[in-house]
Amino acid sequence: MILLISDLHLEEKRPDITRAFLHFLDTRARQAEALYILGDFFEVWIGDDAMSPFQRRIAQALHALSETGTRIYLMHGNRDFLIGRDFCRAAGCTLLADPTRVELNGEPVLLMHGDSLCTRDLGYIRLRRWLRNPLSLWLLRHLPLATRQKLARKLRQESRAQTRMKASEITDVTPEEVPRVMAAHGVRTLIHGHTHRPAIHRLEVEGQPAQRIVLGDWDRQGWALQVDDQGGFRQAPFALD
Predict the structure, then answer these.
(1) Half-sphere exposure of 186 (CA within 13 A, CB side)
(2) Are 226 and 2 in contact (CB under 8 A)?
């Protein structure tokens, strides 16, 4: 069994989500061969050098899971793209590039956070391109801690304000971008998060049946996609408490 989750947005202000996640690690995740976390794991991450006691607690819980034999893979989201090697070492997890092609039960599957598929949101795509530039990342990581904290607050406030004003189709994936990316990577299954619109979408890629699986966000409930040993995909919500 393999499990995939995303968009937990862990923060101290949401102890209900934290409790549910820690319970998930102690129960269901211990039965899994691998756990994939596809971005926006934390609500905000300003650098490994600024890890709070709360974030260290999460890293320790992940490390404890890894010691039971469950492999853990983590992908950057748009909220936590500054997660680096120090956190991954403390958490016992492997950092994945976005996108990454993997094999799940013998089938090639493309894993993404999902924000790069929202190409109609031109302002965000421009910002994303700048933030993910290696030079920009180096500069951000070397800013004073207080400056990074101020910048993170500013970006979050602007993101919330702009998201409320944008049409829903702007903040969702671009339909034409999905088959293009899937064809480029030679897959018939794409799994991503980011949009907070959990669903399984049927489509065609180069004339062949394909599917796009959108992971759910942890807010009013938790979500986990399970890939069973026969290659089936099952996703269902569960209560946080």
Answers:
(1) 5
(2) yes
Whether the model clears a pTM of 0.90, i.e. scores above it, the answer is: yes
Each residue's pLDDT tens digit, 113-140: 999 999 998 888 888 888 888 888 888 8
Question: Which positions of the chain have pLDDT values less than 50?
Answer: none
SS3 letters for the chain? Answer: CEEEECCCCECCCCHHHHHHHHHHHHCHHHHCCEEEEECCCECCCCCHHHCCHHHHHHHHHHHHHHCCCCEEEEECCCCCCCCCHHHHHHHCCEEECCCEEEEECCEEEEEECCHHHCCCCHHHHHHHHHHCCHHHHHHHHCCCHHHHHHHHHHHHHHHHHHHHHCCHHHHCCCCCHHHHHHHHHCCCEEEECCCCCCEEEEEEECCEEEEEEECCCCCCCEEEEEECCCCCEEEEEECCC
Place of tokens 């970006």: 155
Q: In whole angstroms, what is the distance from residue 163 CA to residue 165 CA?
A: 5
